[in-house]
Amino acid sequence: MKTWNFKAFLAIFLIVLVLGSTFLTGCITVTQSPESTETPAVTTPINTSWTPPANTETATQLPNIADVVALVKPSVVAISTEVTTYDFFDRPYTQEGAGSGWVIDPDGIIVTNYHVVEGANTITVTTDNGDTYIADVNSIFTDPLNDLAIIKIDATDLPALKRGTASNMRVGDWVVAIGNALGQGTRATEGIVSRQGVSLQVDYNQTLYDLIETSAAINPGNSGGPLVNLAGEVIGITSAKIASVGVEGMGYAISIDIAMPIIEELVTNGYVIRPWLGVVPYTVDQIAIAQFDLKVDEGVLIAQVVADSPAYEAGLQRGDVIVSIGGENITTVEELTQVLHAAPIGETLEIRFYRGDMEYVTNAVPIESPRPETG
Q1: pLDDT tens-digit profile of 14-25?
Q2: Which of 100, 108, 297, 360 could form a disulfide with 153 if both were Cys (CB 3.0 to 4.6 A apart)?
C-alpha cells in the first residue's frame, strides 16, 4: 500500500493557492458600499462650470465600419496601471493592469471604468498617436456604484468623441466597440445591440442597471472604451463580459444616457451627490438570519449605523431589518439603493423595519452623501 507524502501534499497545496491568487488579482472587484463610513475629505473638482457635449441627434451614419473606426480611434486611449498587492506570504508585489478610455473633452478629460483605476498607484494614459501621460492619482474622480471614473491628464487639443443617445438604438442596430483589448493595443470589434435595459449583478451588493447588451466581442482591456453607433457617436461605455464554457460571450456597456449625468458631476463636483442615510446594508440571507437570530427571512439588514447620520437620528440600530422605504417594499440592497437614490434630498422617507419579531415605523430625512476621501 502506498503511503501519502505529507510534504508533497503541502507543496502542491501552496502552489495551487499561489497560482489561484495570481489569477484572481487580474480582475479587480468593486466592493465599496454606497453607504460609506469613511471620514470625508475635501475634493477639488476639475471644472465647476463644465458642461457635457451636446447630444448630436441628427448625425448621419458613415458608409462603413472602417469609416467609423477611422473617426473614433484617435479619441480612444490605452490605460496602464500598477497596483500594489500581496502574495500568500504577505509580501508586496506590483500587479499590472490594462484598460481603455476615451476623450470627452479636448482639455485632457478621459472617461473610463472605476474598476480599471481602482487602487492604482500609477496610471499611464497613452493616446492613439503614441503620446504618454502619467496621471496624478489625485486627479482621478470615481463613482464605484456605477463603475465610472474620470481621469484628468495634462493635455490640450485632444480629439473628443461626439455623444449619441442609447434610447434611440434598436435591437439589431450595428455598434462598434473600440479599446485596448488584452492590453495589446487599440482594436475594434463589431456587433449588434442584443438587448436594452439589462441589469447585471457584478458583486454581492452591487448591480449595474440599464446596460446595453451587445454581440460585439469585449475582452479584458476593453473596459472603459466606447461603444459607438454607425455615426461614430458614443452610446455606451463597455464595462463587463460574461463568458463560460459552451456559451457565447455577451458584452455589456453602460448606457451613455445613464452615465452622462454622473460624468458631469464627477467633473464639476469631484464626486456624485446622492441621498444618504448612513447605514451599511446587507441583504438578508441564511447567514444573517443565523448570526443575528433574525425573525424575518426577507429584507435588508442594517449591519452598521453611522453616528449622527439620518438613520441614527431616526432611531435605527444595528440588527434592524428594513422591509419598506418610501412606501416601496424591499428585499435586497439593490432595491433599497434604487429607492433611496430616487428620493429627493431633504424630504422625509417612511421606513418600516423589524427589531426582533416586532415591526416598527420611523421617518428619516436623507442628506447629501459625504465627500469621498481622495489620494
Answers
A1: 444 444 443 333
A2: 108
